[in-house]
Specification:
Elements: H1 8-25, H2 38-55, H3 66-88, H4 92-105, E1 111-114, E2 119-122, H5 123-139, H6 141-155, H7 165-207, H8 213-232, H9 236-256
Antiparallel strand pairs: 1-2
Helix pairs in contact: 1-2, 1-3, 3-9, 4-5, 4-7, 5-9, 6-9, 7-8, 7-9
């Protein structure tokens, strides 16, 4: 029979490990998907926390009352959430690119219900997002998330979280510049093709004013825009590499901003 005894100090230490791990699981990409059952998330977090507890050396916790321990719990929770959100915000790149493409094509009013977020999302953004998620599964990117949170226990010891707002702010500002750059790279084929269509339609308006270009132009833009998406969808793996690189950079930056 397998027996394992915990002292009160070990239990406190394990709960802090579990707090960081569970908060990371519910905020990081792929694992935080709403389609994943909550029981699986809780059980998966407990198993990972137990494995990390077995290899993490015990450090004495510096607190004097229950309020001090509650502050440590909040610190570990914020640490896990910040690391997870650092990677999760990178997924919004494809959503932003999809919104720009939908505006150019004329599908900005077409909204789809995304069961993973329980929010309305654009057609093109949803297409890109599920494509990136499939590539994430194929490439094994979700293993990197687990390695990152496990290594964070070495870089950020339990009870030693230090929040540096300057580093976090600098990392977010740098991310926003890459955010715009990568989004425009994704939707630039659609923008250029629709721009050419607008030029052609403008010439036709001057040469044949009797044609109702408003009703004709909508169908042409949708056809050309969808054709551009179809022809350039093969570049999605390359785009995914940019997004995965940003995830690595953001997670590393968030961990470094909390390293004592």
């Amino acid at each position: 029979m397998l027996e394992r005894s915990f002292s009160f100090e070990d239990l406190e230490f394990f709960l802090l490990i579990f707090t960081r791990m569970s908060c990371f699981i519910v905020s990081c990409p792929y694992y935080s998907n709403r389609n994943v059952p909550r029981r699986f998330k809780a059980g998966f977090a407990i198993v990972l926390a137990y494995l990390v507890y077995g290899v993490t050396p015990y450090t004495e916790l510096a607190y004097s009352s229950i309020y001090g321990y509650a502050a440590l719990v909040l610190q570990e929770a914020m640490c896990g959430i910040i690391i997870g959100i650092g990677a999760n915000i990178c997924e919004s790149i494809v959503q932003f690119a999809g919104k720009i493409a939908d505006m150019e094509i004329g599908l900005s009013m077409v909204q789809l219900f995304d069961p993973s977020t329980n929010e309305a999302a654009g057609f093109t953004g949803t297409l890109y997002q599920y494509g990136v998620t499939l590539i994430m599964m194929i490439s094994g990117m979700y293993y990197y998330f687990l390695r990152a949170i496990i290594e964070s226990y070495t870089l950020i010891p339990i009870g030693g979280v230090v929040f540096r707002s300057e580093k976090m702010t600098r990392s977010i500002v740098l991310f926003l510049s890459d955010y715009m750059s990568i989004s425009l790279r994704i939707c630039i084929p659609v923008i250029m093709s629709i721009m050419i269509v607008n030029v052609v339609l403008g010439i036709l308006v001057k040469t044949a004013p009797q044609i109702n270009m408003f009703s004709v132009g909508i169908q042409i833009k949708i056809t050309v825009g969808l054709a551009a998406i179809f022809l350039t969808i093969g570049f999605l793996p390359t785009v995914s590499e940019y997004i995965f690189r940003e995830m690595r950079v953001m997670m590393t930056a968030m961990i470094e901003s909390m390293t004592p």
